[in-house]
């Protein structure tokens, strides 16, 4: 099922609009440029037309302020967790506005994917790198009620707390470990965190550890990170005996930056 069809089945998320225009969330042929293939989901001819519309929208979508551009650059180029946390502390109170301006379209699309793999009403989920809670809004809209949030930045978590979406919010450095027992959650979710300057593929097994057997971790990996952080090569070894890649699709991510991301669903084995 394409994300567009998934969103159609979720009335609250049926239209992702940016600057008054409908953003096409269809399967993106940019995957061809990086040699990505998914034999189970061939590109459909009729979506080529949608893609041209999408590219036109991206070219017109350059609405970001200089400050937002600078903060984007700082968080993506951070060399340490401290640099990362400092940049997000500065960004926390204006992050939601900046992401709205940037055409950040991933959270509802990824929440729709998670809802396909976990029954929203009865599943406890962990929002990994939850930030200010934009992802929590998308999870709530998709029907999830028991949502815990984890993030390295207490300033971002303070913003998330104001939204009253989460059962629990915890300061966590994913590269050091999640303070939860094994087999705790039915699902895990992460948008915008497995990316350059943030968290690499090495953190995936720790997220899988806190899932129940059969649980699913849905995450975005930006197209650039996919290449620079070596996901293609590392995922098979990381997943060996631990998880299977149930879904790997390419979709729009941050429209103003013409960024696409891999949308992954990783299913815990056992
Ligand atoms: C681009 S934001 C995404 C936030 C939210 N998921 C969203 O979709 O708006 C990335 C988040 O990852 C968090 N982060 C970066 N490195 C982290 C780490 N090592 N452990 C936990 N969170 C981290 C940042 O603090 C930030 O809130």
UniProtKB/TrEMBL annotation:
Listed SUPFAM superfamilies: S-adenosyl-L-methionine-dependent methyltransferases (SSF53335)
GO biological process: methylation
Superkingdom classification of source: Bacteria
Molecular-function GO term, any one: methyltransferase activity
UniProt KW keywords: Methyltransferase, Transferase
Pfam family, any one: Methyltransf_25
Chain ranges of the Methyltransferase domain: 125-215
Keyword Phosphoprotein: no
Protein name: Class I SAM-dependent methyltransferase
Gene source species: Hwanghaeella grinnelliae
Lineage of producing organism: Bacteria, Pseudomonadati, Pseudomonadota, Alphaproteobacteria, Rhodospirillales
């Amino acid at each position: 099922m394409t994300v567009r069809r998934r969103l159609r089945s979720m009335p609250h998320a049926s239209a992702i609009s940016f600057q008054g225009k409908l953003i096409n969330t269809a399967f993106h042929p940019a995957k061809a440029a990086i040699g990505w293939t998914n034999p189970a989901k061939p590109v459909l001819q009729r979506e080529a037309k949608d893609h041209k519309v999408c590219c036109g929208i991206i070219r017109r979508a350059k609405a970001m302020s200089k400050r937002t551009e600078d903060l984007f650059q700082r968080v993506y180029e951070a060399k340490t967790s401290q640099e990362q946390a400092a940049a997000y502390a500065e960004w926390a109170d204006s992050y939601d506005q900046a992401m709205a301006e940037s055409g950040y379209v991933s959270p509802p699309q990824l929440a729709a994917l998670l809802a396909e793999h976990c029954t929203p009403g009865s599943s406890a989920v962990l929002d990994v790198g939850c930030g200010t809670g934009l992802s929590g809004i998308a999870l709530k809209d998709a029907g999830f009620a028991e949502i815990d949030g984890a993030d390295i930045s207490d300033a971002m978590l303070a913003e998330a707390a104001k939204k009253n979406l989460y059962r629990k919010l915890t300061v966590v450095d994913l590269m050091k470990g999640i303070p939860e027992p094994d087999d705790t959650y039915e699902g895990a979710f992460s948008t915008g965190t497995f990316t350059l300057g943030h968290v690499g593929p090495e953190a995936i097994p720790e997220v899988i550890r806190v899932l129940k057997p059969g649980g699913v971790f849905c995450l975005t990996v930006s197209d650039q990170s996919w290449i620079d952080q070596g996901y293609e090569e590392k995922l098979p070894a990381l997943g060996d005996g631990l998880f299977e890649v149930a879904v790997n699709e390419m979709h729009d991510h941050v429209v103003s930056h013409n960024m696409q991301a891999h949308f992954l669903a990783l299913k815990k084995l056992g």
